[in-house]
Write a structure and sequence with these properties.
Elements (H helix, E strand, L loop, with lengths): L5 H26 L15 H35 L6 H26 L11 H33 L1
Helix pairs in contact: 1-2, 1-3, 3-4
């Protein structure tokens, strides 16, 4: 592999995790008002439960902000020190990989294993599972796309 591409990939993955988390929090939690952090345990049907979910959504946004900040810092350091070729496909693939990892890991842990929330809380049984599985599938597709782009980009600079 030409020079050290690892730092560029790591920066992209961290930024992808942050972006995935922000899209999840902004689109699902805030705009669509679905899938708050604790909504399977504390359904947001009372003001107290809504406030509790809002606090934990805020904690979640702190995590996504930290991932984004770490990714930006590493990207800046990588570019500044010339430690890695700045290949668009590798970087874009790393963003997709990070976002896909976020969806897959968060979906498996929070939706399936712990059951903190589901993609659509108001859906019943099988329909709820379908939404959760689609979320997991989106993560797997993003991971596949990310790996494909990274490999293609690495071949360009090899």
């Amino acid at each position: 592999m030409h020079r050290n591409i690892k730092s560029l990939r790591t920066a992209g993955v961290l930024l992808g995790v942050g972006m995935g988390g922000f899209v999840d929090g902004i689109v699902f939690h805030q705009i669509l008002q679905l899938h708050n952090m604790l909504s399977n345990r504390y359904f947001p049907d009372t003001l107290a439960n809504e406030q509790l979910n809002m606090v934990w959504d805020g904690v979640f946004h702190v995590f996504t902000w930290l991932m984004t900040a770490a990714g930006l810092w590493l990207l800046w350091r990588t570019a500044q020190r010339g430690r890695s070729p700045l290949n668009t496909r590798v970087f874009t693939g790393s963003l997709w990989l990070g976002w896909g990892l976020f969806n897959l890991i968060e979906g498996i842990i929070d939706h399936q294993l712990i059951g903190l929330h589901h993609v659509v809380e108001r859906a019943a049984g099988t329909e709820r599972l379908v939404y959760d599985l689609l979320f997991l599938a989106s993560g797997a597709l993003m991971i596949g796309l990310g790996i494909w782009l990274i490999k293609k980009g690495q071949r360009e600079i090899a």
